[in-house]
Design brief:
Helices cover 41% and strands 13% of the residues. The protein is built from eleven helices and eleven strands.
Length: 290
């Protein structure tokens, strides 16, 4: 861990990264790609020391309310968050100033902040986005070693739904020759149906690799799946997009299951939902004796 002072905190689309780098160890992580210019060891988490102050200043200056977001580059609930609490402070500011919030995570640590998530959702809208990739728990531990298991994430999604928090699932990546099976996809989709998620984001059955993330991924394949790296190289070379050979049938299964169960599966519709700020009216019961 190391600290920096940031010049700003909110992007043009009102997203933020309170941390840079991650300790979850997911073997396919795109955030390791060199194009993001993370000029430090990925596991050496960069903490924006002045992030909370910058966020409060930005929210005070905002002319209109909007949805805030975090988690696109670094999971907000890395273990370090339990110590520093930057995400909780950001949620508190969103509630204080009346902004909506959405976050992407793979961790059941999000439940620590259930009180704030509910408070924000009572006033505006709060959406928790959860990534699910691998139904089989032992395989999940290989692909995503230092994060909540898929079963734990599923239980988290159910609890969030019970508490009135809308949820969205990211169904990606699907790794060719590893978890691109009908059994895997059916298991994840059944979880989504039972948890009553609002929508599922999917960009196709496959994954992406580029400089930085490719080298790490291949090193992990050598450790976990002997001879798999050579199979990838034969099939894809240095391609950026690696579509599963089963992509067509898996995509049909995905869309048909979502359609049958009333789950939104159009990415544009889901992103519009995530980005749309909602102001909820409070209906106060008046007393004749006031």
């Amino acid at each position: 861990m190391h600290y920096v002072n940031a010049k700003g905190i909110l992007s043009s689309t009102n997203g933020m990264n309170l941390y840079r780098g991650c300790s979850h160890g997911c073997i396919y992580c795109d955030s390791r790609s060199k194009c993001y210019h993370m000029d430090h060891a990925f596991e050496d988490i960069e903490v924006k020391a002045n992030a909370v102050e910058l966020l409060e200043s930005a929210l005070k200056r905002k002319r209109g309310k909007c949805m805030l977001g975090t988690g696109s580059m670094t999971d907000p609930y890395i273990p370090l968050e339990s110590e520093l609490g930057h995400v909780r402070k950001a949620l508190s500011l969103a509630y204080q100033y009346g902004f909506g919030f959405t976050l992407i995570t793979k961790s059941n640590r999000v439940l620590r902040d259930l009180d704030l998530l509910k408070s924000i959702n009572d006033k505006t809208k709060c959406v928790v986005q959860m990534t699910l990739t691998t139904y089989d728990e032992s395989l999940c531990r290989k692909l995503e070693p230092n994060v909540s298991t898929t079963q734990e994430r599923f239980e988290t999604l159910k609890l969030l739904r019970k508490e009135g928090i809308p949820t969205v699932v990211w169904l990606c990546p699907i790794l060719p020759f590893i978890n691109d099976t009908e059994e895997n996809l059916t298991g994840i989709l059944n979880y989504c149906v039972e948890a009553k998620v609002y929508g599922i984001i999917n960009f196709g059955m496959g994954m992406t690799l580029r400089e930085g993330s490719r080298e790490y991924f291949y090193r992990q394949l050598d450790k976990l799946f002997p001879n798999m790296k050579e199979r990838y190289i034969r099939a894809y070379g240095n391609q950026y997009e690696l579509a599963s050979p089963r992509s067509g049938s898996l995509m049909r299964l995905f869309h048909e299951t979502c359609e049958r169960n009333g789950i939104v599966h159009d990415n544009n519709q889901i992103f519009e939902y995530l980005n749309t700020f909602e102001q909820k009216e409070k209906h106060v019961q008046l007393s004749f004796f006031d």
